Amino acid sequence: MERQALPFAMLAVASAVFAVARRTVWPRMRGAGAAVLIGLGLFVAPAELVLISRGWVSELTRVALFSLAPLFAVVFEPYMGRSVGLQSRSGLLAALVAVAGTLLVFPVDLPGSIESGGAFCAVILAAACVAAANCGAVKVAHELPANSIASLAVMAGGTAATGFAAQSALTEQMVWRWNAISPELAWSAAVELPSLLLLFWLMRRLSATRMTMRFVLAPLMTLLMGFILQRPAIEPRAWLGLFLMTAGAFGILFAPEDEPEVGSSILKLDRK
User: Fold this and answer.
1) How remote is the C-alpha of 6 from its chain's centroid?
2) Mean residue pLDDT across the chain
3) By the 8 A CB rule, do 69 and 131 touch?
């Protein structure tokens, strides 16, 4: 938890410097509350749920289950995202295809006990939490002035850093020594901070469904690089899974985001 707090603290500081330099308009009370919820829902809560499940759910199973995030985003976006009442049928199909491909490539260990079943559900809840927070973040980013995205990053990043630091202080033995944290600082500054800055920059440019495609694209790119460098023997099932993952990713990234019929959501969650 202490290590996870570092990149978010850097995000808050870097965004604050940019916001002050650009004289960014800071959101009011409602926007600040939404930013805090985004920081909790997008970063802290999923990390806590994954931590709880780590002893019962394998890493490959977690990767497979997090591919459900785009599917959750497609379902949630018409109700809590920017495009209220609009849902992409092609996006829903593409998300299902991507999930099917991921399940073909990554082995999923089904739960064999009540504890492992609860942990399994916790990972699925974490994926749903990320999708819901992405929907809310994209909506808030479009409601704020164009130059206020830095202030959103400050508050969301500060919330995440505070949450992880508090969790570390309560449950871990903190080791704030330079020789212990300097490698982590270097890694956070070189890799994780640019990724977080890119994430918030994209909130005004991509839909929530397309943003959650990182949970499919990241393992897909890792697999392709591994196949290119190591050239292992690949089973037909894995080839089919890679094809479906690629087709689903391209379908979500390039398909029309919304259907023209307002209020014609495929899944009637509002019972109307």
Assistant:
1) 18
2) 84
3) yes
